[in-house]
């Protein structure tokens, strides 16, 4: 069967009130198309939306713009997006050179808009600063899939997909709390990320809310690092000197955790266990080996970029969802922050990033 002829670009009204549905990740597999020889797809005069599937459809050009990949997780975002796009013969991916300079990223997105891509996937270096250019894309009839760092208004995107920072802290806190619930006067230390980021504050709030359920546990120290190996080592060294003994450490980010591990080894400390954040392959392998203080990590999955490509492709092809009754794609998809331990690490190891 020949590909479906290209449809007119969606209008602004279509984008806000009614393009066909799509979904991310596992929801996009094992689905069938709208056409049916039996006619069972029409019931009581109600037609179902075309559901997303892997079979080739109308060609879609997706513009992908993200920040500079100066961090393991951000590099994994780029890799996930490229790998997913390569799986689809009907997808052409146009990417920009990542930048942490907002003016430069705005210019890159404007270039993608002018090249008339069908859909945009944007992980903004700064959601607030890039809101206007996303609005420009939407007003031009180009659906925007907002990845992770959110724009200031829902009018700037058709769908947002990202991680759960509050849930990340909450699940880390509950994991630590359950392991220490029978320990009298348990002490916990937190190695946070950049304090000027809202995501860091959300992770800390979730962690504190979880620990509030365990009256025997006290958080005795918290210091912020900068999501880098060097800062993790420096700040962790200071924490180890300031707190002579404690039972658990939660580190917000596995990249800075590499530095924290170095500081811990240099200090010869092993009286506590460590829970990481994000889900790097290094940490998962340490969990699997079970020969260090690292016992768990809480996911912030970079696979969200692959899901964003799935969503963008489905939007461009006016395909819908399998598994949900709604005919439209959700306006937001929040990924779950699973806790990876020795018991389940083999399941999650393929998602670990370098």
TrEMBL record:
InterPro entries: Peripla_BP_I, SBP_2_dom, TAT_signal. Residues 29-58 are annotated as: Disordered. GO terms for cellular component: cell envelope. SUPFAM superfamilies: Periplasmic binding protein-like I. Residues 62-317 form the Periplasmic binding protein domain. Signal peptide: none annotated. Keywords: Signal. One of its GO terms (molecular function) is carbohydrate binding. PROSITE patterns: TAT (PS51318). The keyword Thylakoid does not apply. It comes from the Bacteria. Pfam families: Peripla_BP_4. It is found in: Cell envelope. Belongs to the bacterial solute-binding protein 2 family. This is Sugar ABC transporter substrate-binding protein. It comes from Streptomyces hoynatensis.
């Amino acid at each position: 069967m020949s590909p479906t002829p290209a449809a007119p670009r969606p209008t602004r009204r279509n984008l806000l009130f009614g393009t066909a549905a799509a979904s991310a990740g596992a929801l996009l597999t094992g689905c069938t198309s709208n056409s049916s020889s039996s006619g069972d797809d029409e019931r009581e005069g109600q037609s179902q939306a075309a559901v997303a599937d892997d079979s080739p459809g109308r060609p879609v050009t997706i513009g992908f713009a993200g920040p500079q990949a100066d961090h393991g997780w951000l590099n994994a975002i780029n890799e996930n997006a490229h790998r997913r796009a390569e799986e689809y013969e009907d997808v052409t991916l146009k990417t920009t050179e990542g930048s942490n300079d907002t003016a430069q990223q705005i210019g890159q997105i404007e270039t993608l808009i002018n090249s008339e891509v069908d859909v945009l996937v944007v992980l903004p270096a700064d959601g607030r600063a890039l809101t206007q250019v996303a609005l420009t894309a939407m007003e031009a009839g180009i659906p925007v899939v907002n990845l992770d760092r959110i724009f200031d208004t829902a009018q700037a995107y058709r769908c947002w997909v990202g991680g759960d920072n509050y849930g990340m802290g909450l699940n880390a806190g509950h994991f630590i709390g359950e392991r220490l619930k029978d320990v009298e006067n348990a002490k916990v230390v937190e190695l946070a990320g950049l304090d000027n980021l809202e995501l860091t504050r959300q992770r800390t709030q979730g962690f504190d809310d979880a620990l509030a359920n365990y009256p025997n546990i006290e958080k005795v120290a918290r210091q912020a690092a900068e999501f880098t190996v060097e800062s993790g080592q420096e700040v962790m060294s200071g924490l180890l000197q300031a707190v002579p003994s404690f039972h658990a450490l939660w580190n917000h980010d596995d990249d800075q955790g590499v530095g924290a591990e170095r500081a811990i080894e240099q200090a010869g400390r092993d009286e506590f266990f460590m829970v990481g954040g994000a889900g790097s392959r290094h940490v998962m392998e340490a969990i699997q080996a079970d020969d260090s203080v690292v016992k768990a990590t809480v996911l912030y999955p970079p696979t969200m970029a692959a899901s964003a490509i799935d969503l963008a492709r489905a939007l461009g092809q006016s395909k819908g969802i399998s598994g949900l009754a709604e005919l439209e794609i959700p306006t937001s998809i929040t990924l779950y922050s699973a806790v990876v331990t020795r018991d389940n690490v083999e399941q999650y190891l393929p998602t670990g990033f370098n």
